[in-house]
TrEMBL record, chain A:
The gene is paaA. It comes from the Bacteria. Pfam families: PaaA_PaaC (PF05138). Gene3D superfamilies: 1.20.1260.10. PANTHER family: 1,2-PHENYLACETYL-COA EPOXIDASE, SUBUNIT A (PTHR30458:SF2), PHENYLACETIC ACID DEGRADATION PROTEIN PAA (PTHR30458). This is 1,2-phenylacetyl-CoA epoxidase subunit A. It comes from Kineosporia mesophila. SUPFAM superfamilies: Ferritin-like (SSF47240). The lineage of its organism: Bacteria, Bacillati, Actinomycetota, Actinomycetes, Kineosporiales.
Automatic annotation (TrEMBL), chain B:
This is Phenylacetate-CoA oxygenase subunit PaaC. It holds the Pfam family PaaA_PaaC. It comes from the Bacteria. SUPFAM superfamilies: Ferritin-like. The lineage of its organism: Bacteria, Bacillati, Actinomycetota, Actinomycetes, Kineosporiales. InterPro entries: Aromatic_CoA_ox/epox, Ferritin-like, Ferritin-like_SF, PaaA_PaaC, PaaC.
Length: 312, 298
């Protein structure tokens, strides 16, 4: 039987050649814990992320937009489902993970603790928030853990549809009335900085980044991805005809990249601490849905037990 | 839009909504021996049933007992929304006089004008669709009563002389068959699951049963269109609806409720534009953004 050292050597070799670790492979406990934390946080984000946009389904201003938004929020539930499945391959149950979300032991993306205040926010979330999510997630398609990487490939394809629908909504609104154009600009002003915060704190104050990169769980640093997002978004904003609310945003020809200002990191830490505009509301909604559904889940289990062969 | 920014095929961006034209290849000319306003009103009735049901179902988004149910409920809402959109467009094509007049130059398409700019008294849905939601048992009972009747209707409407109605029915019957089976399965689970689930199911059934008869009531418009081979007289499938519900009740060990049909107001029901108090509230929410921007582009 191979010993611990052999296992570790094999694991290191797989990581070194950028290959995948699979559920039945040996892996260090800390690698497993890091993955469970990251995948669960991602799954929770999809499920909590249904709320800010779901807020506008009942008020969508055209039948077509209502269908697009419903389909999008439905996709998020689907993403949550396959991410929880990916986490389950690491030996945790979905029920346990959901319990950790509801008790506040595990986090979800802070962006969803911001409110959606106009229909333009549906577009801005698609364009900026899903755009930032894609920048974060595309490298994860090559992440070292197989089930996570494969789930991400599917999710990224759908997220790129989401980003396009968001951008297309904003583009259409910009061709509408002056009030609609103001609504788009106001929405972009509110979501710009929180979108930049989605990449996490600056590299020098991101304690987990280095180890996650060494293990091939994470492939790029927070600051690299943030830069990439800004460079991608500036021309899109110009094509749309909106400004981005950062006076220090300029093209730096020497670097071949944009210079830009820093988000208010104190605000990010306040949101992470639980003091964001919607933290309490989002978790309370999730807890209420879970509690309201308890009798249904109990009924389904009781019925399934009756259906089992040999019963009665 | 500037497609270079994203690349790819711009017809594909609206995920799940614009991939295919459900009426591609369908003959859209009107049957010439039908009163245009009758056809429009008939389409509005079927459209409004689907639209208001869809609105109520979508209220469950992010609130379902399990994530799988969240996905399923959104699917049902999307199916009905799709039916509503086609039927509203058909109503407008049959008789533009039913479409609310918007400010000159408004880009709002007629199906959206019908959905977002009519007041409650102009809606023709059955009252079952609009009553405020309750718990999950309420969703299941409402959907069962609604989809059993709608499935029988759509099955017969496939033979309509109006090719658009026939096409909507052919597509819709598959969707609504699934809605019926999904809700019937849940009805059985809740009836036989626990004492609590059975109590809640029967309570929802008692509340909603009086609205059921309206689904199979025949009005003057139904009769006129049935005579012309364009619509279906609901009394022709009332027996089939009754049989399906009887089977679901028997399998689930639930007695058929004894309460009679809910009265109308001066004999007028939902199809006649007389609704419950809930509809104008539902519409106030549904229409608020569209009405604030009658010249808006979305």
């Amino acid at each position: 039987m191979p010993g611990q050292a052999d296992h570790q050597a094999h694991f290191d070799e797989v990581i070194a050649r950028h290959d995948r670790i699979e559920p039945r492979d040996w892996m260090p406990d800390a690698y497993r814990r890091t993955l469970v934390r990251q995948i669960a946080q991602h799954a929770h984000s999809e499920i909590i992320g249904m709320q800010p946009e779901g807020n506008w389904i009942s008020r969508a201003p055209s039948l077509r937009r209502k269908a697009i938004l419903l389909a999008k929020v439905q996709d998020e539930a689907g993403h949550g489902l396959y991410l929880y499945s990916a986490a389950e391959t690491l030996g945790v149950s979905r029920d346990d993970l959901v319990a950790m979300l509801l008790s506040g032991k595990q986090k979800y993306s802070s962006i969803f603790n911001y409110p959606t205040l106009s229909y333009a926010d549906v577009g801005t979330i698609g364009w900026l928030v899903d755009g930032a999510a894609i920048c974060n997630q595309v490298p994860l398609c090559r992440t070292s853990y197989g089930p996570y990487g494969r789930a991400m490939i599917r999710i990224c394809k759908e997220e790129s549809f989401h980003q396009r629908q968001g951008y297309e909504l904003l583009m259409t609104m910009m061709r509408g009335t002056p009030e609609q154009r103001d609504m788009v600009q106001e929405s972009v002003n509110r979501f710009w900085w929180p979108s930049l915060m989605m990449f996490g704190p600056p590299d020098e104050s991101s304690p987990n980044t280095e180890r996650s990169m060494a293990w091939g769980i994470k492939r790029n640093s927070n600051d690299d991805l943030r830069q990439k997002f800004v460079d991608m978004t500036v021309p899109q904003a110009q094509a749309l005809g909106v400004s981005l609310p950062d006076p220090s945003l300029t093209w730096n020809a020497d670097r071949g990249q944009h210079d830009f200002g820093q988000p208010d990191w104190d605000e990010l830490f306040a949101v992470i601490r639980g003091d964001g505009p919607c933290n309490t509301q989002r978790l309370a909604h999730r807890r209420r849905a879970h509690e309201d559904g308890a009798w249904v889940r109990e009924a389904a289990s009781a019925f399934a037990a009756q259906e089992e062969p040999g019963h009665g | 839009m500037n497609d270079d920014l994203f690349g790819g095929d711009s017809s594909q961006w609206a995920f799940g909504t614009d991939f295919e034209d459900p009426l591609a290849g369908v003959d859209t000319t009107m049957v010439d021996d039908v009163v245009a306003d009758d056809l429009a009103l008939y389409c509005l009735g079927l459209a409004d049933d689907a639209l208001i049901m869809s609105q109520r179902l979508s209220e469950w988004c992010s609130r379902a007992p399990e994530m799988e149910d969240d996905v399923a409920l959104a699917n049902l809402a999307l199916d009905l929304l799709g039916q509503a959109r086609l039927l509203l467009a058909r109503a407008a094509a049959a008789s533009p006089s039913v479409v609310p007049v918007l400010p000159e130059g408004s880009p709002v398409p007629p199906e959206d004008a019908l959905a977002f700019f009519r007041s409650a008294g102009q809606f023709r849905n059955v009252r079952l669709a609009e009553v405020p939601g309750g718990d999950f048992a309420h969703v299941i009972v409402r959907l069962l009563l609604f989809s059993v009747a709608r499935r029988e209707l759509l099955e017969r409407l496939r033979g309509s002389r109006d090719q658009v109605l026939a096409a909507v029915a052919a597509r819709g019957v598959k969707e609504v068959s699934y809605h019926r089976d999904w809700s019937a399965r849940w009805f059985l689970v809740l009836a036989r699951g626990t004492g609590e689930s059975r109590r809640r199911l029967i309570s929802a059934l008692d509340e909603l049963w009086p609205y059921q008869a309206e689904l199979v009531r025949c009005g003057a418009v139904d009769l006129a269109l049935a005579d012309a081979g364009v619509g279906v007289d609901p009394t022709t499938y009332a027996g089939a609806v009754d049989a399906v519900l009887g089977e679901v009740f028997a399998t689930s060990g639930v007695e058929r409720p004894s309460r009679g049909p809910l009265a109308g107001v001066g004999g007028r029901l939902g199809r006649d534009g007389v609704h419950t108090e809930a509809l104008s509230l539902l519409l106030a929410e549904m229409q608020v953004v569209a009405r604030a921007h009658p010249r808006g582009r979305w």
